[in-house]
Amino acid sequence: MGISYQIDVAQQCVFVKLDGETNEWDIGIALQQLWQDSRLDPSFSRFVDGTGAIPAPDTGNFIKAVADDTRRKTNPIGKIAFVASSEKVYNNFRMYEAYAQREQCQIFRDKFEALSWLGVHEP
């Protein structure tokens, strides 16, 4: 269970991994840690791997809050690539995409397609 991230300064990308059960508390804590990380440049692209995630139910309001917060704190931002294997995670990412109102946001089923779209490789 958990959320981890790695900031790759050379690739100007934040790699996020959602693994196991992910709830609002875990996501909130991880985001606070990310925002406070001195290596974070808000313009870096994001790669969010949700292939191992088991989402909590009824997260719509929370997803909207995260999208709003991210939009305020990261303007401009690079591309965001989400990868999902389950329908629930995919639909949560779609909800985020709609709320975030980002032109450079894509959701993928294949991790390698997402990495290619971002022009990065896993660290």
Question: Could you please describe the fold and organization of this structure?
Answer:
This protein has one domain: Rossmann fold (3-Layer(aba) Sandwich), CATH 3.40.50.10600. It has 123 residues and is of the alpha/beta class.
The main β sheet shows up as: 5 strands, mixed
Q: What proportion of the residues is helical, as a percent range?
A: 25-40%
The DSSP helix count reads 4
> Which CATH architecture?
3-Layer(aba) Sandwich
CATH superfamily: SpoIIaa-like domains
- As a whole number of angstroms, the C-alpha radius of gyration is 13 Å
Strand order of the largest sheet: 1-2-3-4-5
Spell the H/E element sequence.
Answer: EEHEHEHEH
Outline of this structure?
The protein is an alpha/beta fold.
How do the helices and strands line up, and which of them pair or pack?
Layout lengths: L1 E7 L4 E10 L1 H13 L8 E11 L4 H14 L6 E4 L3 H14 L4 E4 L2 H8 L5
Parallel strand pairs: 2-3, 3-4, 4-5
Antiparallel strand pairs: 1-2
Keywords:
123 residues; alpha/beta; Rossmann fold; 5-stranded mixed sheet
